[in-house]
TrEMBL record:
Name recorded for this polypeptide: Very-long-chain (3R)-3-hydroxyacyl-CoA dehydratase
Organism classification: Eukaryota, Metazoa, Chordata, Craniata, Vertebrata
InterPro entries attached to this UniProt entry: Tyr_Pase-like_PTPLA
Catalysis: reaction(s): (3R)-hydroxyhexadecanoyl-CoA = (2E)-hexadecenoyl-CoA + H2O; a very-long-chain (3R)-3-hydroxyacyl-CoA = a very-long-chain (2E)-enoyl-CoA + H2O
Keyword Cell cycle carried by entry: no
Pathway the protein takes part in: Lipid metabolism; fatty acid biosynthesis
Organism: Leptocoma aspasia
Pfam families found in the cross-reference section: PTPLA
């Protein structure tokens, strides 16, 4: 309906503004302060980044209620990956926040999202630019695996701090005789992360073929 389409347009516009601000801020800070800006990335833009990622949870709801026709599982995996790495790994360990990998991760996320939300906004209005369509469905194929590698590296960097501080590790009281050692949980999640990457990459190639096939390109040109 028109109302739902307008709602989705406003949602995409909000996300576009947030990610554009983050991306522009990162570029300006790097051009101004050089490498010194990398270690301060999280403290400078972390709040807006967290707000944008929390807002992205709505995309799962959009798919569930049927106003977004995207596939649920790939989108769910992509969103939860970011939520876990951002809030559980990076946000909880101040020592990790100053690592260069955080800057790399934020750069990749925002580059992908600026393109994606720009494409989505125009698509809501029935506007399709072939270069933008090609960029939206092609850029994610090399950049998504790079972002997964960055997520994995961020998790590996955080492990010594989770081991030292015991963050999220739980010793259950009697009569229970086991404990939850969070570094082991993160190591198991690494396997899930890379297994999910294979599934999502396959889905990205399928979406690219569906939108950039010869027939679809001709239809959008006409």
């Amino acid at each position: 309906s028109f109302i739902m389409n307008m709602y989705l347009f406003v949602y995409d516009l909000t996300q576009f503004c947030g990610h554009s601000w983050i991306f522009t801020n990162m570029i300006i800070r790097f051009m101004t302060f050089g490498k010194d800006s990398l270690a301060d990335t999280f403290h400078s833009i972390g709040l807006v980044m967290r707000l944008c990622q929390l807002l992205s949870v709505l995309e799962i709801l959009h798919i569930l209620i049927g106003i977004d026709k995207s596939h649920l599982l790939p989108r769910f995996l992509q969103i939860t990956e970011r939520i876990i790495v951002l809030f559980v790994v990076i946000n909880s360990q101040e020592e990790v926040q100053g690592k260069y990998v955080v800057c790399v991760l934020f750069f990749l996320w925002n580059l992908l999202d600026v393109v994606r939300y720009t494409y989505n906004m125009l698509a809501r209005m029935g506007i399709y630019y072939l270069p933008l369509t090609w960029l939206n469905f092609s850029l994610c194929i090399p950049l998504y695996p790079l972002s997964v590698l960055a997520k994995g590296f961020a998790i590996c960097v955080s492990l010594p701090y989770f081991e030292s501080f015991g963050t999220y590790s739980i010793q259950l009281p009697f009569p229970f005789t086991f404990s939850i050692y969070f570094p082991y949980v993160l190591k198991m999640y690494l396997l899930v992360l890379f297994a999910g990457m294979c599934f999502i990459i396959q889905n990205l190639f399928s979406e690219r073929m569906a939108h950039l096939g010869t027939g679809n390109i001709k239809n959008k040109r006409s």
